[in-house]
Amino acid sequence: MEKLLFTLVTIVVVSSCSGQTSSCSNNPCPRYQVIDTHEDFEERHYVDTDWITTKLSSKDSTSLIAAAKTLRAFCAKQKEAGHKIIDGWPALITTTEGNDHSTSLSWFLAPGSKPELTDTSVTMEHKAATTIYVRSYSGIPSLIAAEKNRKNLCEALIKAGKKFNPSISTGAHYESYFSFTHHNEVWVYSA
What we know:
The chain has a single domain (2-190), classed as Multidrug-efflux Transporter 1 Regulator Bmrr, Chain A (Alpha-Beta Barrel), CATH 3.20.80. The chain contains 3 helices and 9 strands, in the order αβββαββββαββ. By secondary structure, the chain is an alpha+beta fold.
């Protein structure tokens, strides 16, 4: 029941994260180059990107709602203060396993965004250029669908002989819940 509630809240939070209702083709997104295409995944090289990120206190709906509210308030204050924030897609939910177990919510900052950190619960995260293995899927985003696609992606990577970091995975969501179509991705980082 908790997973279902988390899924429903995720859908609502991600759909309202920056007020956009169209796919990435109409909004700023991280730039990447496709290195190779496989039957079950794509290998992409992403350029350097910047994100605003806040940690979730737990992996439940209340924590996710609080994280989205924190990022939304941060963006609103930045815009009111005259700092340039260019909303983009995707919204990421990243889980790190192991000793540093954590879950975070991140929103992409398009190039040219210039926020000033004033809230200690929000961090600027600069991600260096890297290779990411991506499995795309359609349908309304859910934790169950993301977990299933992550498992399938990891199995496909092992079969293809790819080295990857199994302790970090990311769900990327690009459209509003109210969109007629949904493009979702699971990201696993190369080792």
